Amino acid sequence: MKLSICIPVYNFDVRELVFDLKREIENEGIDAEIILIDDASKESFKETNQSLKHTVHHFIFLEKNIGRSRIRNHFLTFSTGEYLLFLDCDGKVVGKNFLKDYIKFIQNNPQTEAIYGGRTVSGYLPDPDHYLRWKFAVERENLSVELRITKPYLSFQTNNFVIRKNILEKNRFNPEFQKYGYEDLLFAMDLKTDNIKIDHIDNPIFNNDLESNVIYLEKVEESVESLSHMLKDEILRSKLSEVKLVKIYNKLANSPLKFILNIFFNMRGESIKRKLSKGNVSLRYLDIYKLGLLFRQMSKGKSDN
After folding, report:
1. Are 91 and 160 in contact (CB under 8 A)?
2. Cα separation of the two ends of the chain
3. Do residues 245 and 253 touch, judged by C-beta distance below 8 A?
4. What are the pLDDT digits (tens) for 74-102?
5. What pLDDT was estimated at residue 304?
6. How far apart are CA 156 and CA 148, in angstroms?
7. In 3D, which of 103, 189, 193 has the Cα closest to residue 153?
8. pLDDT computed for residue 272 by the predictor
9. 3-state secondary structure at position 199
10. Which of 177, 284, 304 is nearest to 240 (CA)?
11. Which of 67, 106, 124, 212 has its CA 20 to 30 A from that of 229?
């Protein structure tokens, strides 16, 4: 069984991740290839990573940014493995048998179609300017396997997962949405619709690039905008109906509370954002901020992505 390791690269030094993966491949005699696709990074990062060109099997540099969904589909063109392992470029391998653990699971479960390994962040408190992203990861993302398997699709993320190539060929990431946000959940729900099971194991990747509060809030705003475009499509709206934010929105959308929330958010939205930018606050404020943003976006007319 051959494993294709697929790493989309964007404005990050990916050398350590590649060297760690290469070391395990060589030390353990693993049948694997490493493929990098740079999604139009800044020249400085292209130059830094250029040294990997003769270390990996393929290193493709795109002239124009094509976004998180299309770039993952693009790996199908270059990969030759039966299974594809997707890793975010800012990840760090923490388990000495990271690749072997995936392979062992596949060998013991030959019918497996998709596997999510999980993620982790530092156990040390970051500085206040980076606290919000860390807090969200610890409380909402870094879930145990026991918790993840209770909601296998909602707890899926694209930072560290394996999928059988023929499954991805039939169930590609939706190319319409190029902006950051919710493309992972939409993909997971597409798999659910097609009765593709997502298995979960304890094989995490360390998040090696914690965004500042300001940058994270910008990404939150972008993700809610992306979600709003998805929800304006009735088919996609139905697929995403299990997502917590969408559930609350659907419950309030035709309620008088909608107008109260809109007034409240117009008056207090910036104040909530300032509070969030300080980092150490309850994530309930983030939930309220996302909901307010979603109502604002959904009130706009339909627009192209």
Report:
1. yes
2. 39
3. no
4. 999 999 999 999 999 999 999 999 999 99
5. 42
6. 8
7. 189
8. 96
9. strand
10. 177
11. 212
Residue carrying structure tokens 């500042």: 212
Are the CB atoms for 14 and 47 separated by under 8 Å?
Answer: no
pLDDT (tens digit per residue) in 149-201: 999 999 999 999 999 999 999 999 999 887 788 999 999 999 999 999 999 99
Neighbour-count burial for 216-253, b at 16+ CB within 10 Å, e otherwise: bbeebbebbbbbbbbbbeeebeebbeebebbeebeebe
3-class SS of residue 144: coil
Q: Is the dihedral of CA 39, 207, 44, 128 positive or negative?
A: positive
What's the one-letter identity of residue 248?
Answer: I
Best CA proximity match to 205, nearest among 98, 105, 126, 49: 98
How do the residues of the chain divide into helix, strand and coil, expressed in percent and rounded to 5?
50, 15, 35
Low-confidence ranges of the chain (pLDDT < 70): 301-305
- Strand partners for 3: 32, 83
- Lookup: tokens for 45: 């990062």
Structure tokens at 233: 């499509």
What are residue 261's DSSP bridge partners? none
Secondary structure of 38-91 as H, E, C letters: EECCCHHHHHHHHHHHHCCCEEEEECCCCHHHHHHHHHHHCCCCCEEEEECCCE
Characterize 100-136 residue by residue with b for buried, 16 or more Cβ atoms within 10 angstroms of its Cβ, and e for exposed. ebbbebbeeeeebbbbbbbbbbeeeebeeebbbbbbb
